[in-house]
TrEMBL record:
Transmembrane helix among keywords: yes
Transmembrane segments: 47-67, 73-90, 129-149, 155-172
Originating organism: Fodinibius salinus
Superkingdom in the source lineage: Bacteria
Keywords for the protein's UniProt record, in alphabetical order: Membrane, Transmembrane, Transmembrane helix
UniProt protein name: Uncharacterized protein
């Protein structure tokens, strides 16, 4: 059952003994989707933070070992970028301190909190170019500028970095539209129907 069926059940003017059961069942299905989404976000954040730690360690050590000013600059940018990425992921996923986890919390309040959470995650992906791709790309390009190799290989590497950045940007924009928009619509529909039937 999906929220279209929920609308039919809630808009039915005749009392139905299964009305409460259907409403609870459909809200449980939506709740399961939200919980699944939160688990995906947590898994993504853990992997990204692990990758950032590796970047900090590798380029932090490289900063002190290399004599190239370009590679030192690139390493510094990458370390700072990795730290900022961790911060953005944490800040976006953090729940507000006043979120009510008690049994007294209404379904509408719960759905409103989840709606805000999903919106923040969508905005995070929509702005991924500025907080993720751009700083990492600049750091990698500066680092590559210090390579003592043939210009053909150096510029080839830089081209690959730019291509990967463009692909990551495009994939994340598509994910934001395909994964987040349907969930946002379902939560908004459920909220609207809850408000109609108060």
């Amino acid at each position: 059952m999906e929220l279209d069926e929920l609308k039919k059940v809630w808009k039915n003017e005749q009392p139905d003994p299964q009305w409460e059961y259907s409403r609870a069942e459909l809200l449980m299905l939506l709740n399961n989707k939200v919980i699944s989404f939160e688990k995906e976000v947590q898994s993504r954040d853990k992997l990204e933070i692990l990758a950032c730690i590796i970047v900090v360690i590798f380029f932090g050590v490289t900063f002190f070992l290399t004599s190239s000013i370009w590679q030192r600059t690139g390493s510094a940018i990458l370390v700072v970028a990795a730290g900022f990425i961790c911060y953005r992921l944490y800040a976006t996923s953090k729940r507000s301190a006043d979120k009510d986890h008690s049994k007294d919390q209404t379904m509408a309040d719960y759905l409103k909190a989840e709606l805000e959470f999903v919106k923040r995650q969508k905005q995070l992906l929509n702005n991924i170019f500025w907080w993720y791709i751009l700083p990492l790309t600049i750091g990698l390009l500066c680092f590559a500028a210090g390579f003592q190799i043939s210009p053909v290989y150096k510029y080839g590497y830089m081209g690959v970095v730019l291509l990967i950045g463009a692909i990551v940007w495009k994939l994340n924009r598509n994910t934001a539209a395909q994964r987040f928009d349907p969930l946002l619509t379902e939560i908004e529909d459920a909220l609207h129907l809850l408000e109609e039937n108060e």
